[in-house]
Design goal:
5 helices, five-stranded parallel β-sheet
Length: 122
């Protein structure tokens, strides 16, 4: 049986963390973090993370700031922004600079997220 890929999902809202876990735990190993700082700690403790997905709007550190820090240490790690807001200039610039690999909209589409993850794991 092939190993399940590990996804780090960062969101400051508990309900979103729970929904993500429930929807994807049978397909991926999910590690949840409730803030950018927590996400960076989880990333340093888990070298097996294959993909990072982060909410954009979070206190202290937004999703682009978090992913920028992730890329400093793991430049080839695929990172997605998941947000309930429109594509902002900050997110667009991060995509153009190859900091963020993909923008995904909330409420999240399970098939879209699964396809996005699978496409970067190939």
């Amino acid at each position: 049986m092939p190993k399940m890929s590990t996804i780090l999902y960062v969101d400051d809202e508990k309900i979103n963390l729970m929904l993500f876990e429930v929807n994807f735990r049978n397909k991926f190993n999910i590690i949840s973090a409730f803030s950018g700082k927590d996400g960076l700690n989880k990333l340093s403790q888990n070298t097996n993370i294959d993909v990072v997905i982060s909410d954009m709007k979070m206190p202290q550190m937004n999703g682009v700031e978090f992913i920028t820090k992730v890329k400093e240490n793991r430049p080839n790690l695929p990172c997605f922004i998941l947000t309930g807001y429109d594509l902002t200039p900050e997110i667009s610039e991060a995509i153009n600079l190859k900091i963020v690999d993909r923008y995904l909209a909330k409420p999240f589409n399970i098939n879209e997220i699964e396809s996005a993850i699978i496409s970067v794991l190939k």
